[in-house]
Amino acid sequence: MKRHTIFWIAAVTAVFGLLAASCGDDDAADDTSAVTETAPAPADEAPTAADEEEPMAEEEPMAEEEPMAEEEPMAEEEAMADEEPMVEEEPMEEQVDPLVELFDANGDGVVRIGIAAQGPRDDGGYYQGLVDQAEELSAANGFGEVIVVDEITFEEAAVELENLANQPVDIIMVGASGLAGNLPEVAEKYPDIYWYCNCGAGFTESEFYSQTQDEGSGIHYTAGVAFGELLKARGGDSLAIIGCCDLGFEKEMVLAIKLGMAAVDESFTVTYTPTGDFPFDFDNVANATAAFDAAVAEGADAIYPFLGGALEPVAQLAVDAGLIVSNPGSPRACDSEIPYDMTVRFDAGDYVRIVFTDIVAGSFPEGSVRVFTAATDPDVVGAALCDSPELQGALDAAFATVASGELDAAIGQIKAEAYAGG
Fold it and tell me: Which of 78, 251, 268, 384 holds its CA 20 to 30 A away from the CA of 215?
C-alpha cells in the first residue's frame, strides 16, 4: 500500500507543476490544454506500473520452495532399491526339523507314532503306560497324533502289524511279546519305519527292531518282600495271584514272589489262578471276578491281579473287601483313583521314555536291546509302597540283596523251572 501512495503523490505533484507552468507562459496555452487533457494518463499508468511490479516483488515464497531442494528421501529410496537385489540373491533356506529328517518314513513332513497293544489302551496298568508315554513324547516333540490299535489277539497280530505299518506312521511300538511272533518278518518288510518292541525277557533279537526287556525274577523278588511286609504288618499270611494262562513269565513271577515272601516269613502262602484263554488273555473280567471270589472264600489276605483289561474291576473288588492289593506295572498307581497299597513297576512307558532319548540321538538303532533290572534300575523297576513309609527300609534291603548277587543262583533255578516247557 505504501508503494501505491507514493506513486499517486508523484502524479498529483506533476499535474500541479504543469498547471503552474501554463500560468507563466501565455503562448503555450494550447499546449497546456493538451497537457491538461493528457495529464491523467500518467496517473492511470502509475498504478498500473505499480500493480505489475508488486507480484514480481512478492514471489519470494516461490523462490523458497524447499521441497524442490530437499530430495534426500529420493536418494534413500534409491539406496534401498539398490540393496534389494542383494537380499534376493541370498534367500533363507527352509529349516528341516532334525527329528522329521531322522524318522519321516513316508515323506509327509510329520513324525507319527503307531502303537500295537495287546489289551485295552486305558487298562490303568501295563498297556496304558506305553500309550500314555507315546502321547507325551509326541506332544513334547511336535509329532502328529498317535495311532493306537489295541485289543489285538495273538492270532490277529501279524495282520494288525501290517495294517498299522500301512497307516501314516513312522515309528511303531509293539507293546508286548504276545504280539511279536511275526515281528521279525513284518519289520523287515517295512524297513523305512523305526520298529521298537517292549518284548520282555529273552525275546529274539533282530536288526530290524530295537527292544527293551526286563529281568522278572529280581523285580518280583522285591514284590514278594513288599507283600510279606504288608501281610506281617496287618496280620495276614496269604496272597492270591490272579493271572492269565500259566505262561512262562507268569510262572517266573509266582516263583520269585514266593522267594521274596519267604524272606519275610516262610509260613506265608501264595496261590495262582489262571483266568484267560491261552495265550495272552489278561482281559477276561468274568473269569477274573470268579477267581477273586474263590480266593476270598479261601481266606486270601492280599490280591495281586496280574491282569490287563480285567485289572481295575478286580482291584476295586479287593479294595472294597479290605484286602491288600497291588497294581501290576504302573509307577503312577499310587496316585490313581484306586487306593493301591503297592505297585510292582515294570512299565513299558518308562522303558520307552528312557530309551527314546537315545533313539532320537541315533545311539539306540534297530538291533539294540536294553534290559532293565532291579539291581541296575531300582528307580524304574521293582516294588514300590504307596503309603507305608515304616516298611521302606525292609524294601530297600530287598533291592540291595538283588544287587549284591546273593540271589543269582536262586534266580537261575527259578528261570530254569519257569521256562522248562519251552
Answer: 268
Q: How large is the average pLDDT for residues 359-374?
A: 94
Is the model's pLDDT at 15 over the cut of 90?
A: no
Q: Which of 175, 176, 256 lies closest to 215 in space, CA to CA?
A: 256
419 three-state secondary structure: coil
The pLDDT value given to residue 98 = 85
- Strand order across the 324-329 sheet: 269-274, 238-243, 302-305, 324-329, 342-345, 382-385
Asked whether the CA dihedral 412, 416, 417, 422 is positive or negative, the reply is: positive
Q: Torsion-angle region of residue 139: left (phi > 0), alpha (psi -120 to 50) or beta?
A: alpha
Closest CA to 350 of 375, 332, 368, 374: 332
Question: What cell numbers appear for 142 in the block?
Answer: 511336535
At 94 the pLDDT is 63
Between CA 261 and CA 240 the distance in angstroms is 13
Rounded distance, CA 170 to CA 115, Å? Answer: 11
pLDDT at 220 over 80: yes
> What is the overall mean pLDDT for the chain?
83
- What domains are there in the chain, each with its CATH number? 98-214 (3.40.50.2300), 217-345+383-418 (3.40.50.2300)
Q: How far apart are CA 111 and CA 408, in angstroms?
A: 43
Is a pLDDT exceeding 70 seen at residue 185? yes
CA atoms within 13 A on the CB side of 30: 1
> Cell 493538451 identifies what position?
34
Residue pLDDT, tens place only, 44-60: 444 444 444 444 444 45
Q: In terms of C-beta density within 10 A (0-12 exposed, 13-18 middle, 19 or more buried), how is residue 387 classed?
A: exposed
pLDDT of residue 68: 52
CB 308 within 8 A of CB 123: yes
Contacts of 114 (CB under 8 A, 6+ apart): 146, 147, 148, 149, 164, 165, 167, 169, 171, 172, 173
- Give CA–CA dist 236/176, Å, rounded: 34
| pTM: predicted TM-score of the whole model, two decimal places | 0.74
The Cα–Cα gap between 110 and 215 comes to 35
Q: For 239-269, how does the pLDDT look when each residue is reduced to its tens digit (9 = 90+)? A: 999 999 999 999 999 999 999 999 999 999 9
